[in-house]
Amino acid sequence: MGTLPFMLFSLKFLLFSIQISSETDIITQFHSLHDGSTLTNGAFELGFFSPGSSTNRYVGIWFKNVPIKTVVWVANRNHPIQDKSGTLSISKEGNIVLQSKNGTNHWSTNITTKVSTSNLVAGLLGSGNFVLTDEKDNRDSGFYLWQSFDYPTDTILPGMKFGWNLTSRFNRRLTAWNNWDDPSSGQITYGFIKSDLPESKIQNGSSVIYRSGPFNGLRFGATQKLKHVPLFIVDFVYKTDEYYFHYQPKDPSLLSRIVINQTVSALQRFIWVEENQKWILYLNVPRDECDNYNRCSSFGICAMIGKSSMCECLSGFTPKSPQNWSVKDWSQGCMRNENWRCREKNKDGFIKFQNVKVPDTKKSWISKSMTLETCKVKCWENCSCTAYANSNITGNGSGCIIWFSDLLDMRQLPDSGQDLYVRSSAIETTNRDDSRKRMVVVTSTTCSIIVILFLFIIVFCWRRKAKSKFRGGWTCKNTTSTSKLVIESKNDSVKYLE
Ligand SMILES: *[C@@H]1O[C@H](CO)[C@@H](O)[C@H](O)[C@H]1NC(C)=O
Ligand SMILES: *[C@@H]1O[C@H](CO)[C@@H](O)[C@H](O)[C@H]1NC(C)=O
Ligand SMILES: *[C@@H]1O[C@H](CO)[C@@H](O)[C@H](O)[C@H]1NC(C)=O
Ligand SMILES: *[C@@H]1O[C@H](CO)[C@@H](O)[C@H](O)[C@H]1NC(C)=O
Ligand SMILES: *[C@@H]1O[C@H](CO)[C@@H](O)[C@H](O)[C@H]1NC(C)=O
Ligand SMILES: *[C@@H]1O[C@H](CO)[C@@H](O)[C@H](O)[C@H]1NC(C)=O
Ligand SMILES: *[C@@H]1O[C@H](CO)[C@@H](O)[C@H](O)[C@H]1NC(C)=O
Ligand SMILES: *[C@@H]1O[C@H](CO)[C@@H](O)[C@H](O)[C@H]1NC(C)=O
Ligand SMILES: *[C@@H]1O[C@H](CO)[C@@H](O)[C@H](O)[C@H]1NC(C)=O
Question: What CDD domains does the record tag this protein with (predicted)?
Answer without folding.
Answer: B_lectin, EGF_CA, PAN_AP_plant
